[in-house]
């Protein structure tokens, strides 16, 4: 189970180019010590926005992730929490994979409590807290969106899945803005879904169906589509930006279809950090 592979790969931001610093921290939540790293840009204001970034399965705190440059440019803090070890001994988020059955960890509740701790300790905005994550972290974004919580104002799963059990057993209590970035040739988190559980992660929906749920839930009635070329030109993968807007709820849905893209953050084709922040920033209060 190598779901984290490819997520750290191709594009790394040099730490010495960042205008900020890391603070390592930990806090006990529901009887478990939760490890985290905070990235705080220089000159960060009190009440600044906060973005949580969740790692992939078996991975750890990725200090070179693509949100940091956006944090420097736009003045928001980044929280990088570490998942607890699951029954396989891997740091992860409990989204109900078959091999996580029996694991009594409620990461929805834990992340909400962790956010409140971070907001208070680092004097960050309660109203402007957002959630993104890749792969297993993306699945956690979907689970959070389906859950009864008011902590995270918008979510942006990357290479993430909606597990079939979530779709079948839960109904989101309210609209929430959602953005998904996903490669059409992803062979770990298949664009076309895996309802037969051939990959071993459990049954999950196709990306269009998973995102379609939110288009309906958010009452989106308008669609725009834009095709942009890869940052690598002809050597990369073009991106089709599907944007669905909702005059009724104000909760939009963005789907970035990376044509031919594989499993990862897609930073060689788009500025993932900047694009994600542009989505989140629409919901600043």
Strand order of the largest sheet: 1-2-4-3-5-6-7-10-9-8
Question: How many structural domains are formed by the residues?
Answer: 1
User: Which blocks of ≥5 consecutive residues have pLDDT under 50?
Assistant: 4-17
CATH architecture: 3-Layer(aba) Sandwich
CA radius of gyration: 17 Å
Q: The CATH topology is what?
A: Rossmann fold
CATH H-level name... which superfamily? Alpha/Beta hydrolase fold, catalytic domain
Biggest sheet descriptor: 10 strands, mixed
Question: What is the total tally of β strands?
Answer: 10
The CATH first-level class comes to Alpha Beta
Could you explain the architecture of this structure?
This protein has 285 residues and is of the alpha/beta class. The chain is built from six helices and ten strands, in the order βββαβαβαβαβαβββα. The chain has helices at residues 67-74, 107-121, 136-146, 164-169, 207-217, 272-281, and strands spanning 20-29, 32-41, 48-54, 77-81, 124-134, 155-158, 178-183, 222-228, 239-245, 253-258. A ten-stranded mixed beta sheet has the order 1-2-4-3-5-6-7-10-9-8, with helices on both faces. A hairpin with a 7-residue loop joins β9 and β10. α1 (67-74) packs across α6 (272-281). The chain is globular. It starts with 19 loop residues before the first strand and ends with a helix.
Short description:
The protein has 285 residues and is an alpha/beta fold.
